[in-house]
Design brief:
By secondary structure, the chain is α+β, with helices and mostly antiparallel strands. Helices cover about 25% and strands about 25% of the residues. It has six helices and 17 strands. A five-stranded mixed β-sheet has the order 1-2-3-6-4, with no helix packed on it. It has a five-stranded antiparallel β-sheet with strand order 7-8-13-11-12, with helices on one face. α2 runs antiparallel to α4.
Amino acid sequence: MKNIQTDSLKSPISLKGSECLIHHSVALSQYTSYRVGGIAQWYVEPQTWDDIQAIFEWIEKQQIPFTCLGAGSNLLVSDTGISGLVLNTRHFKDYSIDEESNTITVGAGYSLPKLAWKAAKKGWQGLDWAVGIPGTVGGAVVMNAGAHKGCIGDILVNAVVAYGDGSIEILSRADLEYAYRSSRLQNKQALVLKASFSLQSGMAREEMLKITTNNFRIRKNTQPYDKPSCGSVFRNPYPKAAGWLIEQIGLKGCQIGGAQVSHRHANFIINSDNATARDIFTLINHVQEEVEKKWSILLHPEVRLLGQF
C-alpha cells in the first residue's frame, strides 16, 4: 500500500471536481447494524456520480483498496477496523418508476423495506418478501437477498456497477450469476450504483398491502428486532434450516462475552451487552463447531466478514 502524506491525515481531503470529503480514522460501529467494528482508515459518502469518479481517481492514485458499505447490515466489521477506503452509498437514493413496464429503478442506498412498501402501495407484486430485511438495494443486489421464497434474482432487470479502475458496466440478471445468497460481485472491488426491478401489476392495492404487512409481522414476531444484529448469520443448508439445527442442540441463549444466540431465533446472533466483533466472531465459530459435531453439517456464514479476524 502506498504511503499517504501524514499532513493529509489532520483534516478531511477534498477532491477535484467533487464536493464530498474523504475523512481519516472514522469509527465504523456507528454505521453497522451490529454496533461494533473498528476504525476505517479512510471514509467517504459520495452523493453524485461525479463524486464516484473523483473518488476512484483518488483510489487509483493512492493505490489502496476500497470497501462498500450501505446500511451496515449483513456484515461484521473487525475490531481492528478496515484498511483502505470505506465508501458508504447511503446517499444514493434516486427513485423512478416506469408505469408501462412495471419497472422500478433505485439508487444503491435506497432502503429495501421502504422499496417493498412503495411497491405494495401500487399493488405491484415481487417485493413483499423484502419488507423485513434491514438493508439497502446495493447490498441486496450483491448478495441476492431473499426471504419468504423470494429473492432479488427473481425480479432484477439490471444493475449499474462501477469498478475501481473507473469503468462502469450494466449487468443483467444472467451476468450476475445469481445463486442462493450469492452473486459474481461478492468479494470483488465493485460498487453497485443503482438497479432496476421488474414487478407484476394486477393485484388490488389493499390485497398487496395485506400480504406485505403479514410478511412484516411474521419477521417481527419471530426475529430479535430489539437488539443489534446483522440479520441471519448462516445460510440455510437445504433442505434443513440453520436456525432449526442450532436450536435442536440447545444453543439458544448461548453467550460469549456480549454476543448471544438469540432466544427468539437461533439463526440470529445479537449484541446483547456491549459485544465486540471478536465476541461475535468467536460465537459464530462455536456454533459452527457444535452443529458440525452433532449433524455433520458445516454452516456457511451469510454475514460478510470485513477486516482481520
